[in-house]
Amino acid sequence: MSMSFERYMLDMVQPMRDDLTRLGIQELRTPEDVEQNLPESKGTALVVVNSVCGCAAGQCRPGVAEALQHDITPDHLFTVFAGQDKEATAKAREYFAPYPPSSPSIALMKDGELVHFIERHQIENRSASDIAADLADAFDRFCR
């Protein structure tokens, strides 16, 4: 029995991808996907940098799911997967300056410009509900 590492990783991370895509969040898997969507998105766009780490599973993805139950939400919902879709993630991170690479992380953009950013260190020691509240506050400020 032989399975390639790439196939194994694709199978292993699919449930982590599904946590976000079942919420209606669109995966950006290539740099071209990022370029076609982020700078062109009029209004507001949420970009989740997904990850295989425990804080992504326990806090980030559940926090995003809870935040998207808020009355006001972004116009566009996107995700890139750090460590998996490396080139797409690197391209997305170009829009998150001045913040260094961080995964997981969550960006809120308005008309292609970064307006709110939650770094890993703001995820790993907080609850999903705290992250959801942070996002809901940002949605109220920027998504009206």
Automatic annotation (TrEMBL):
PANTHER family: BACILLIREDOXIN BRXA, UPF0403 PROTEIN YQIW-RELATED
One Pfam entry name: Disulph_isomer
Name of the protein described by the UniProt record: Putative bacilliredoxin, YphP/YqiW family
Family under the similarity heading: Belongs to the bacilliredoxin family.
Family matches, as Gene3D superfamilies: 6.10.250.2150, Glutaredoxin
Domain of life: Bacteria
